[in-house]
Task: inverse folding
């Protein structure tokens, strides 16, 4: 063939999928609806601290300072993602309670892990717990387990200075 017969054909427009971003009152209802305590803390860390899935799964106890109220992300997909985050007081108490419940409390142990093996916390485990909590909280709409729980940048927060891309 000398040319592509579909080259000048206009592609059909697909309806844009709208995902659900939780409102403040929905966050409270969903958090209260979790039956798995670890999944509730995971949910709160995602919503209140804005971590990515990989960042959350890589958190170790040495990365959290409950006395200072800070959480350090040291394993991120970008250099800009390495950061310290202030932990709200409610979340501090949730993380402290989680520490008391877990058998894995060493500095190098994962904060969120399999409760019997201490291995990485599986995304599927959280997705199932989240789906149950969202249903129990009677929240309408589809929620992507990790992406839609990250808070959006505040409109009053100026963007970081970046070098122009080439």
Result:
């Amino acid at each position: 063939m000398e040319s592509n017969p579909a080259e000048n054909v206009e592609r059909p427009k697909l309806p844009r999928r709208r995902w659900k971003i939780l409102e403040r009152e929905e966050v409270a209802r969903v958090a209260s609806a979790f039956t798995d305590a670890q999944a509730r803390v995971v949910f709160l860390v995602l919503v209140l601290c804005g971590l990515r899935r990989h960042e959350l799964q890589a958190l170790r106890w040495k990365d959290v300072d409950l006395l200072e109220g800070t959480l350090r992300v040291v394993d991120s997909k970008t250099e800009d993602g390495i950061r310290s985050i202030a932990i709200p007081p409610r979340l501090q108490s949730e993380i402290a309670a989680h520490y008391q419940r877990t058998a894995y409390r060493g500095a190098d142990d994962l904060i969120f892990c399999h409760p019997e093996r201490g291995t990485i916390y599986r995304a599927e485990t959280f997705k199932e717990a989240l789906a149950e909590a969202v249903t129990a909280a009677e929240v309408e709409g589809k929620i992507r387990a990790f992406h839609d729980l990250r808070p959006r940048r505040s409109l009053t927060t100026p963007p970081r200075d970046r070098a122009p891309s080439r």
The chain has five helices and three strands. The first helix runs from residue 24 to 33. The chain has one domain: 24-146. Helices lie at 24-33, 37-49, 53-58, 89-101, 123-136.
